[in-house]
Amino acid sequence: MILSIANQKGGVAKTTTAINLAAGLSLEGYKVLLIDADPQTNATQVFIHPDHEISQDRSLYQVMMNFAPISNVILETPFPNLHVVPSHIRLSSVDLELAQALDNRSERLKKALDPVRDRYDYIVIDNPPSLGLITINSFTASDKLIIPVSTAFFALSGLVQLQETIGMVKQAQLNPNLEIMGVVCTFSDRTLVSSDVERKLREHFGGLVFQTTIPKNITLEEAHSNHTHIFAYSPTSAGANAYKSLVREVIQR
Amino acid sequence: MILSIANQKGGVAKTTTAINLAAGLSLEGYKVLLIDADPQTNATQVFIHPDHEISQDRSLYQVMMNFAPISNVILETPFPNLHVVPSHIRLSSVDLELAQALDNRSERLKKALDPVRDRYDYIVIDNPPSLGLITINSFTASDKLIIPVSTAFFALSGLVQLQETIGMVKQAQLNPNLEIMGVVCTFSDRTLVSSDVERKLREHFGGLVFQTTIPKNITLEEAHSNHTHIFAYSPTSAGANAYKSLVREVIQR
Ligand SMILES: Nc1ncnc2c1ncn2[C@@H]1O[C@H](COP(=O)(O)OP(=O)(O)OP(=O)(O)O)[C@@H](O)[C@H]1O
Ligand SMILES: Nc1ncnc2c1ncn2[C@@H]1O[C@H](COP(=O)(O)OP(=O)(O)OP(=O)(O)O)[C@@H](O)[C@H]1O
Ligand SMILES: [Mg+2]
Ligand SMILES: [Mg+2]
Questions:
Q1: Is B153–A221 a contact, with Cβ atoms under 8 angstroms apart?
Q2: Mean pLDDT calculated for residue range A151-165
Q3: A97 to each of A92, A134, B70, B99, B170, how far by Cα in Å?
Q4: Fewest beta carbons less than 10 Å away: which of A46, A156, A200, B36?
Q5: What gap in Å lies between CA A153 and CA A192, rounded to an integer?
Q6: CA distance B196 to B190
Q7: What letter does residue B32 receive in the DSSP assignment?
Q8: How many CB atoms lie within 10 A of CB A233?
Q9: Cα separation values, B100 from A9, A133, B171, Å
Q10: Furthest-apart CA atoms within chain A: distance in Å
Q11: Residue A129 Cβ contacting ligand 1 at under 6 Å
């Protein structure tokens, strides 16, 4: 199963969800590949030690631009069952660099994943905060999408755009079977704005919204700066419990 | 003075800073134009009533794609001295749509602003969370940049990329005089991670970091869902005081 974590709204916990979902699934015994498709390299920074500088040739950039086999850039992490494909800054120019390409630019990631997809139970893709060519590649390669939505006013309007983009990928026959696995509320707290947005989300998306909501919890932030996931950093925290419950819902869907 | 609010990291309060800086400057008696260059249209949603649907022909999209005069799309707001150029979803395909353009695609916004820049004391541009063609256009058109940085672990690494992009715009002679006016710490609170990041920022950027830091403050969120800026929504809140102090520092620089 190939899962994309996507939302063009910035800072809604796409990377935090991708990291902790991938880690949580690997702790349940599933073989997991985490792909960092965001040129900001946030997910890469958590799993790869800062002294281990990743060159563009050893990153997703090389796969997308120069058809390098993805198995050349897959790295093991300190955690069993969890591998990672690192990102690189240069990925941010893919839209411009691939503009003149003659092949179907939207299928590059899908074609790159075909040879390795049977080695993993789950492939989790972290996406940048935009709906450009990188995200279109992820949507084309994915079976399902998980959409983190922060419980804030600006969060709701972006969902219309996101649904339009998903429709476009389906209509263009890039990936007719693409569907939303679920919407997960992040940064939820007891403020009026937060519960109001959550209520609107459940009205609008119904059963697509996961039962699990992710609370604001500083340990999630601390885990990142300690270069690890929440289950290794603080296994009994509210953040760890929430992501553990999300992992269980994902396995069931 | 044309000011770009930029950082490719998502959710660091670019839009919140653009809105409240533009509003604060207009309350000081300066004539201000706020340009929403983010296809998510967050800044547009705050100032333009939701029932007033903006078509792509009446938005920045038309200016960037079809050379429409920007004065055709400038709208007044309920606040004196504050005008706004609305964004549109279609702006998200500018990178792909302009790939084949024969002119210098990076200068479209600069050329569009030349005829109106003398009508305003400040033009404030809100940017999307990416370093694509829209942000390059903003950098080419701007005199100075303000970089909001949230006090979180992921926030620091993006700054290297941002400085590289600024260097690129200068070297390519697109805008040799472009400079960073300042870096503003946002979402600051009393956690260890927050004060640690703030210390590292001041070490790295020195005097470029504004004295003012913006605290986490729910009234900033509430102002957005009430379609207004912080000074009209809650003038004595911590959020309003912080942005008032930032406005004063900006006027002095
Ligand atoms: N539930 C939470 N509680 C507290 N902090 C969180 C939570 N989830 C994420 N964070 C922090 O909030 C910030 C934004 O999260 P993250 O970087 O995962 O979002 P993103 O959607 O991937 O951002 P971008 O759009 O830039 O890719 C990060 O600093 C992260 O550590
Ligand atoms: N100081 C603050 N305290 C509390 N909430 C804030 C603060 N500043 C911004 N916010 C809220 O945090 C969210 C992110 O801020 P905002 O949308 O301005 O960031 P952005 O950088 O423009 O995001 P994007 O990368 O998607 O453009 C918004 O919901 C906003 O209302
Ligand atoms: Mg991210
Ligand atoms: Mg914004």
A1: yes
A2: 87
A3: 9, 12, 29, 9, 20
A4: A200
A5: 11
A6: 10
A7: E
A8: 18
A9: 27, 16, 23
A10: 51
A11: yes
The two tokens of residue A129 are 């905060």
The answer, yes or no, to whether residue A224 has pLDDT greater than 90, is: yes
For the stretch B64-99, pLDDT in tens is 999 999 999 999 999 999 999 999 989 988 887 887
Which parts of chain B sit beneath pLDDT 50? none
**Which of A8, A12, A16 best tests ligand 1's pocket when mutated (most atoms within 8 Å of CB)?**
A16
End-to-end CA distance of chain A, in Å?
A: 11
Per-residue pLDDT, A51: 85
Question: Which pairing describes strands A122-126 and A179-186: parallel, antiparallel, or unpaired?
Answer: unpaired
B101 touches chain A (CB under 8 A): no
CB pairs under 8 A between A and B: 118
Measured by CA distance, the residue closest to atom 9 of ligand 2 is B13
Q: Between chains, do A8 and B40 touch, taking CB under 8 Å as contact?
A: yes
- Nearest ligand to residue A240 Cα: 1
The mean pLDDT of chain A is 94
